Amino acid sequence: MAATIVVGYDGSEHAAKALDVAVEFAKMMPDSEIMIACAQDRPGPAVGFRGAGFGVEEMWDELAKKIEEELDSAAARVRAAGVKVTTACTPDRPDVTIVNIARDTNARLIVVGTKGAGARHGEKSQLGSTATRVLHEAGGIPVLVV
Prior knowledge:
- Helix 3 packs parallel to helix 4.
- The two termini are 26 Å apart.
- The chain has one domain (3-43, 52-145): HUPs (Rossmann fold), CATH 3.40.50.
- It is globular and about 50 Å long.
- The chain contains four helices and five strands; from the N terminus they run βαβαβαβαβ.
- Strands 3-2-1-4-5 form a five-stranded parallel β-sheet, with helices on both faces.
- By secondary structure, the chain is α/β, with parallel strands linked by helices.
- The model has no long low-confidence stretch (mean pLDDT 87).
- Strand 4, helix 4 (129-137) and strand 5 (143-145) form a beta-alpha-beta unit.
């Protein structure tokens, strides 16, 4: 049975570091695979003061394409390192996505970055909100914060 390592990924520098660490762990665990988990938290309804004609759906479509491209690129990096990889992206909050995917796959480990793409430059907190919530909600699955 494959040992799954779930990596929270949002394209940020911290997520890239988490993915690199997960690859190193996967190389040490026979028959392991990495599940790259992302979330596209889509607040609704996304109609601003200019109305529905503003191009909101087109904006979401462009964002979905960008996310898909980043996931494909991240998966290619993992494959190039000789590790099996799959991806999943759900329309939920990142912490919920990461924990649910980890539970659904019986993951042996969750790896997340200290902060994500939403972190403010110069922010003094050491741990972002997603990493904090994953730590609290993982329910027995070990969490490595990189």
